[in-house]
Write a structure and sequence with these properties.
By secondary structure, this protein is α/β, with parallel strands linked by helices. The protein has helices spanning 40-47, 70-80, 96-106, 111-124, 140-152, 170-187, 198-203, and strands spanning 2-11, 14-24, 29-33, 55-60, 63-64, 81-85, 158-162, 190-194, 206-211, 214-215. 41% of the residues are buried.
Length: 216
């Protein structure tokens, strides 16, 4: 599902990624761990087409995404990749339902289609009574589940998560981690999760260790 070939990335004089090679199989849940500054988030951003490597190739679901122009890469990202961040990044002026609808509307779905799919996903994630609530009316765990629903709205092949449970308490962490596996089993998505959470890393299908811009 994901092929990363000979990726390098520098910011000024700082080389963050050093000839990184990685593959992730379809429907695999992979964690990437390592100390702060190891290059984990940069690698995730390059895989997600949010950043460009200095050299190397990224192939997602058979499509070479390095080298696509900005319009094509944005369209590919919207259709194929869902993102879950440590801080949910929900838009405060919109309801849970509206936040989940946004990527579908960007992808030119009809409003009624986007609303129907968003409602189904929020109900699936146990948020049927929170559809019209704004982010400041939701708990931390609820906000993160809304963010997961938003990541799923376009039925992407790949979900990329950066410290998704980093701001949650223990109970909500366990619930979120279980949710990832339930979603994989139900929809077959591929997950790549950057995490410092050792308990999460232990239960993923595979753990990739990074240090100083290399994969160990």
């Amino acid at each position: 599902m994901i092929e990363v070939q000979n990726i390098t990335k520098s910011y000024g004089q700082l080389q963050v990624l050093k000839n990184v090679n990685l593959h992730v199989n379809q429907s695999e849940i992979v964690s990437i761990v390592g100390a702060s500054g190891a290059g984990k988030t940069t690698l995730l951003q390059i895989m997600g087409t949010l950043d460009k490597p200095d050299s190397g190739t990224v192939i997602i679901n058979g499509q070479k995404v390095t080298g696509l122009n900005d319009t094509n890469v944005s369209d590919f990202r919207n259709r194929n990749i869902g993102f879950v961040f440590q801080f949910h990044q929900l838009l405060p002026e919109f309801t849970a339902l509206e936040n989940v609808m946004i990527p579908a509307l960007i992808g030119r779905a009809k409003e009624w289609e986007a609303k129907k799919k968003a409602k189904e996903l929020l109900e699936l994630l146990g948020l049927s009574s929170r559809l019209e609530h704004k982010p400041n009316e939701l708990s931390g765990g609820e906000k993160q589940r809304v963010a997961v629903a938003r990541a799923l709205i376009n039925n992407p092949a790949v979900i990329l998560a950066d410290e998704p449970s980093g701001s949650l308490d223990t109970e909500n962490k366990i619930e979120l981690h279980k949710l990832f596996f339930d979603l994989r089993d139900q929809f077959g998505q591929t997950f790549v999760i950057v995490t410092h959470d050792e308990e999460l890393a232990k239960i993923t299908d595979r753990t990739i260790y990074m240090k100083d811009g290399f994969i160990l």
